Amino acid sequence: MSAGARSWGAGAASRVVLSLLSLHAAVLVALPLVVLFAYAFADRDELGDVIARPSTEAVRRALSPLYLGVLARSLGAAAAVTAVCVAFAIPVAWTIAAAPPRWGRRLSLLVIVPFFTGVLVRAYALMTLLAADGWVAALLRALGLGGDSLGLLYTPGAAMTGLVFVYFPMAVIPIQASLARLDPGLLDAALDLGATPVRAFVHVALPALRPGVVAAITLTFLPAIGMFAVVDLLGGGRAPLVGSVIASALGGGRDWPFGAALGAVLVTLFALFTFTAAARAVAGRAEAS
């Protein structure tokens, strides 16, 4: 086969892959977004059915102080969950990276094992542990830290614990991947030059971990904002987040324009967050070069 034929074949294969990716983005990303924003600016009749009449009522409700407060509470909860996940993920990933290869593979498998079950299964398992007659309550009573009416379930703390339990593996994996590319000799050189272990970690390891930390924040913060199943099951609906409000509006509330308007607000925030992070990453690479 001539060089020209091989070049044409490679170009044709690239065009096919690019076309498939474009079709995937159009059908599974762009089209749902168009439908979402179309519903957000639609109206309802007296029975709650969506009608093809432009209206901004749903968007104005979504941007009212009441639901902006719910959104702010959701952002705060997602930020707290992300901070806890990343804070614990760094030492766990460091332990996995520093372990011998045999034990490192086993520890990595332990991190991945939760993905073998669904989110609802893990939520119900955590409900069993946090129930009044569960293991956690029994342990606290044995230590004298609670009475017979110890209530751990259906509290905001239980909902936060559930979110950390669900998204913690998603924070460990990218940080572990960044640590795998870190040359241990750089840390040894920093220590030999007189740096303390803390300064060696801050000035050598932490910059290398930055891409993994950014990925971990993205993989935990963004989905934690909209998670409603774990929050409703463990929190009992006492402090509903924006995902729970959207689920209620699209379900029993039969208010699809309002649910779509809240979803459109979230999508806009996600886009701003992603574009800002990407712009900072590009600026950081430009300064480094």
Notes on the protein architecture:
The chain is mostly helical. It has one domain: Orthogonal Bundle (MetI-like fold). The chain is built from twelve helices and two strands; from the N terminus they run αββααααααααααα. The chain has helices at residues 3-40, 57-62, 65-98, 101-112, 119-130, 135-142, 156-180, 184-192, 197-226, 229-235, 242-250, 256-288, and strands at 43-44, 50-51. Strands 1-2 form a two-stranded antiparallel ribbon. A hairpin with a 5-residue loop joins strand 1 (43-44) and strand 2 (50-51). Helix 3 (65-98) packs across helix 7 and helix 5 (119-130) runs parallel beside helix 10. The longest helix has 38 residues, at 3-40. The protein is globular and about 75 Å long.
Output the keywords:
single chain, mainly alpha, two-stranded antiparallel ribbon, MetI-like fold, 289 residues
Helix content range: over 70%
CATH superfamily: MetI-like
Distance between the termini: 41 Å
- Biggest sheet layout: 2 strands, antiparallel
Determine the number of helices (DSSP H or I, runs of at least 4 residues).
12
SSE string: HEEHHHHHHHHHHH
Work out the number of β strands.
2
| Helix/sheet category | mainly alpha
Which parts are unreliable, with pLDDT below 50 for 5 consecutive residues or more?
none
CATH fold name: MetI-like fold
The dominant shape is globular
User: Architecture, CATH level 2?
Assistant: Orthogonal Bundle
